[in-house]
Write a structure and sequence with these properties.
10 strands; 9 helices; about 270 residues; alpha/beta; TIM Barrel
């Protein structure tokens, strides 16, 4: 497995600071937020993309994935033409940058629709994106307000392409009241990337993020299960600093994650 971190945890850092930190702390790669005003976007110019690629190459750090904040519709309706065009644009961006992984998101069906119709629409859009490159892998993240693990599995079955699967977030299983180990067993054959975080409970019973290994998400067991199923891809540290601004800064959290992973893999 290779280790990376999301730039969600470094919202105020420049790309230069991100690449330098990845090299300094021994990460293999970085997962770049892909949206206007973030690390990169579908509106980035060719010169900007070339400079970004050169920056990470000069540090010996891979761009592990692009984190797309793609079109997905809402309760009022879904424009499948727009969803498909946006996924294709992100796939072309990843392909042009030589990035092999693209994280995508969904939401929930429109009020006048069904989950089956919504998943089938996304399956068509994903197949169109995959047609852009034989080297590209897409992973759909299980996420509150979006797909549960079983729905990601159902979507993978609908897509029917080994280049599409799950971006498994064990902490989101906790957020959505899913049993983490049971969910991991179900999705294990489809896991393309693991997005790792941890959870603890506050004094008033609410969930909040915490440093890996200090909460109750069974991340070590999750890693053992997916490795046993043949997974050997990216494990990405998902540090949600914008959501939980009182969390330790990345310069503490990043080396902590590397220590946690070293112990987890020994």
């Amino acid at each position: 497995m290779k280790l990376s971190f999301w730039t969600l945890g470094t919202p105020d850092w420049t790309n230069e600071q991100v690449a330098a930190a990845a090299q300094r702390y021994g990460f293999d790669g970085v997962d770049l937020r892909c949206a206007v005003g973030r690390n990169v976007s579908v509106e980035s110019t060719p010169d900007e993309l070339a400079a970004l690629q050169e920056l990470f190459a000069s540090r010996g750090v891979e761009i592990a994935s692009l984190l797309a904040y793609n079109e997905r519709g809402n309760a009022e309706g879904v424009d499948w033409t727009a969803v498909t065009a946006d996924l294709v644009a992100h796939a072309r961006l990843a392909n042009g940058m030589g990035v092999g992984n693209l994280r995508i998101n969904a939401t929930e069906p429109a009020r006048d629709s069904t989950w089956d119709a919504y998943l089938e629409g996304f399956a068509r859009a994903i197949r169109a994106a995959l047609a852009e490159s034989s080297d590209l892998t897409l992973n759909m993240q299980n996420h509150p307000g979006s797909l549960r693990v079983a729905q990601v599995v159902r979507l993978a079955e609908m897509v029917g392409d080994p280049r599409f699967g799950a971006g498994l977030s064990p902490d989101h299983c906790v957020d959505m009241d899913e049993e983490v180990i049971e969910a991991t067993r179900l999705v294990s054959p489809y896991v393309k990337q693991v997005h790792m975080a941890d959870r603890e409970r506050t004094a008033d019973g609410k969930l909040r993020a915490c440093l890996p290994g200090t909460g109750f998400v069974p991340n070590r067991e999750v890693l053992d299960l997916v490795r046993g199923g043949g997974f050997d891809g990216w494990v990405s540290f998902k540090w949600e600093k914008p959501t939980y601004p009182d969390l330790p800064d990345a310069d503490l959290a990043l080396p902590h994650f590397m220590q946690f992973m070293s112990a987890a893999q020994s």
